[in-house]
Design a protein that fits this description.
Helices cover 24% and strands 23% of the residues. By secondary structure, it is α+β, with helices and mostly antiparallel strands. Bound molecules: arginine.
Length: 353
């Protein structure tokens, strides 16, 4: 008898308990979500992913506010990947820019290991050119090994200053004077580094809105509640350049100095930005209006870092090609290049911001 009376009571209690548990769990996870979003946004710069991919999701959004893009529009864009991972999509870790038949510009942090002056093992870096998708790769695309890698001797990992690197390819991407075309379309082409030209399109003080374009295969979904999501296909987004003064003011809030080697771009209102995995890739300005890319593009930056992605008040930060030292490293660092090219690190890890 007693037991019969108690049983429904116990069930009721259990049900009530379950309800309370679920409800408090919901509240807790919301709070945790909020916390990790803020935390992730602050700490992402010190986050390091190993084996080429960001390991933990951080902050909000993607090559945010972007759309799928054809490599024919960005034929200078390459993907850097670790061939040991098995495929470009699995080994993908950064972007890069073809600057001539044998050289690819990228961010120093894409290829540097912990100690200064060292790059990761060259066998762990390969370049995919001429493909819109990382998997399967497009017909006519080229995978090239890397014979040399170096970065600016002034590169400072703690501040991201001088975050510029250079890869020397094992084989030229094209043999003749001009790159090959596939069905009359150039899918592999250089974007020369011209500091003066870049500077004329990216005056650090200029207040008028200059619309730049960023591209890459970077993270589409670094939301704190779900894992990172990498697109197979190239994405691009339009990001207005932000003045040096405003950007410095923005980043002062998190004690990040914006140096003359940096240029900022992003649209907090429409929330367009680059994100994790886009690093080393191109930020370009169309030199002509109406736009006739890719011939009209001028390289003004390389994806570098941000405070999370597409966070209001924090534009993306890029390595400034209009800075003569940055462009000088890319264009005339041959002696230094050769010296570092032979130096291979035993360390397998690469930094990834
Ligand atoms: N450091 C990232 C990378 O290695 C790029 C982050 C860019 N962030 C941004 N908010 N624009 O791919």
């Amino acid at each position: 008898m007693m037991a019969d009376v108690r049983r429904p009571c116990a069930w009721l209690l259990l049900l009530l308990g379950a309800l309370i548990f679920t409800f408090s769990g919901l509240l807790a996870s919301r709070a945790l979500g909020d916390h990790s979003e803020r935390h992730g946004a602050r700490s992402h710069k010190s986050h390091r992913a190993h084996g080429g991919r960001p390991a933990v999701p951080r902050a909000v959004e993607s090559i945010v506010g972007g759309a799928g893009a054809s490599i024919a529009r960005f034929p200078f864009q390459v993907a850097l990947y670790n061939p040991r991972a098995g495929s470009p999509s699995v080994g993908f870790f950064c972007g890069g820019v073809i600057i001539d038949a044998t050289h690819v510009a990228t961010a120093a942090h894409c290829i540097a290991t912990g100690s200064h002056g060292r790059t990761g093992a060259l066998e762990e870096i390969e370049v995919l050119a001429g493909s819109s998708t990382l998997t399967p790769t497009d017909p006519g695309s080229v995978r090239d090994a890397v014979a040399g890698a170096s970065f600016d001797p002034n590169y400072e990992p703690s501040t991201s200053d001088f975050d510029v690197g250079l890869l020397t390819l094992a084989r030229p991407l094209w043999a003749g004077a001009t790159p090959p075309s596939v069905n009359g379309i150039d899918t592999i082409a250089p974007l020369p580094v011209d500091a003066a030209l870049a500077a004329s399109y990216s005056d650090p003080q200029a207040e008028q809105t200059v619309l730049a374009t960023v591209s890459g295969w970077g993270d589409l979904n670094p939301a704190p509640t779900s894992g990172p999501s990498y697109p197979a296909g190239l994405q691009s987004a339009q990001v207005p350049l932000v003045t040096e003064g405003l950007c410095a003011e923005n980043y002062a809030a998190i004690e990040q100095t914006i140096t003359p080697r940096m240029i900022c771009a992003g649209n907090s209102r429409r929330r367009t930005d680059s994100c994790y995995g886009d690093s080393g890739g191109p930020l370009v300005v169309d030199s002509d209006s109406p736009a006739d890319p890719p011939q009209d593009y001028v390289l003004v930056g390389l994806v570098d870092f941000g405070n999370g992605c597409a966070q209001p008040g924090y534009p993306g930060v890029y390595t400034r090609i209009g800075n003569p030292e940055v462009a000088g490293f890319l264009n005339s660092g041959s002696a230094h290049r050769a010296r570092l090219a032979g130096r291979q690190s035993r360390k397998k890890r690469r930094r990834h911001r």
